[in-house]
Amino acid sequence: MNQTTLTAPVARAEALTKTYGSGENEVAALRGVSASFAPGQFTAIMGPSGSGKSTFLYCLAGLETVTSGSVMIGDVDLTTLSRTQLTVLRGGRLGFVFQAFNLLPVLTAEENIRLTARMSGRKADEAWFGVLVDALGLRPRLGHRPSQLSGGQQQRVAVARALLTRPEVLFADEPTGNLDSRSGAEVLRFLRSAVDAYRQTVVMVTHDPVAAAYADRVLFLADGRIVDELTGPTIDAVHARMRRLEG
Ligand SMILES: Nc1ncnc2c1ncn2[C@@H]1O[C@H](COP(=O)(O)OP(=O)(O)OP(=O)(O)O)[C@@H](O)[C@H]1O
């Protein structure tokens, strides 16, 4: 048993279900998903298209309501919070990175990086800002707007923005999905180093076995359920499990 399994989870889903629509349009996206995320653990979520990966991530991150079950962030059950309480908790304790970067085009890289911290009313930790900007190679680009940045640079700005508030969990939805393999590897290496150096907890949805192999473990979803788990994943092992799932 490694050390992380002895500590309380940072996030936990318990018997999570999510149904979209009703009547004949009803889709059961999650059918009873339970999982724990230990501090400093990097988890990848994989599975065939439509298996519920994004729904799971969004429910865990409080960006999507659940149909039943609970989502604990520390000792707070997100499913019991009001919309306002949820917004406050997300701004302060959770970080997000999306496939499409989601930067504001009129703001510079620096303004984008500072945005979440500013909106949650926090005073940015300037030393930490400097560490992130340097580790992500963004210092020469701070005055540039997103349209003047490459995709990889934009995603690194989004990662810095998400981490500036020192979130308990960083949620990433296909963070390398729009990047070439070199830019993708830079983002993944940085996420890995944030886990190793700062014990950042990361939960990442990906289709890419190469990306999943950066994680400590991979949870595999199929048809709204966790059907498999791999610890210490290698690219080949992830490929093999996915082939099995995709039949
Ligand atoms: N807003 C929605 N309304 C109705 N059905 C939805 C909605 N969002 C997702 N679904 C359905 O829920 C199921 C799970 O979707 P989800 O996007 O979570 O899967 P996924 O594994 O992330 O898929 P992909 O790999 O294609 O992104 C799918 O059948 C999808 O069509």
What do you see in this structure?
The chain is α/β, with parallel strands linked by helices and 247 residues long. The protein has one domain: 3-Layer(aba) Sandwich (Rossmann fold), CATH 3.40.50.300. 36% of the residues lie in helices and 25% in strands. The protein is built from 8 helices and 10 strands. Strand 9 and strand 10 (225-231) form a beta hairpin. Helix 3 runs parallel beside helix 5 and helix 4 (126-135) packs antiparallel against helix 5 (151-164). The radius of gyration is 18 Å and the shape is globular. Adenosine-5'-triphosphate (ATP) binds next to strand 2 and helix 1. It holds the Pfam family ABC_tran. Residues 11-247 form the ABC transporter domain. GO terms for molecular function: ATP binding; ATP hydrolysis activity; transmembrane transporter activity. Keywords: ATP-binding, Nucleotide-binding, Transport.
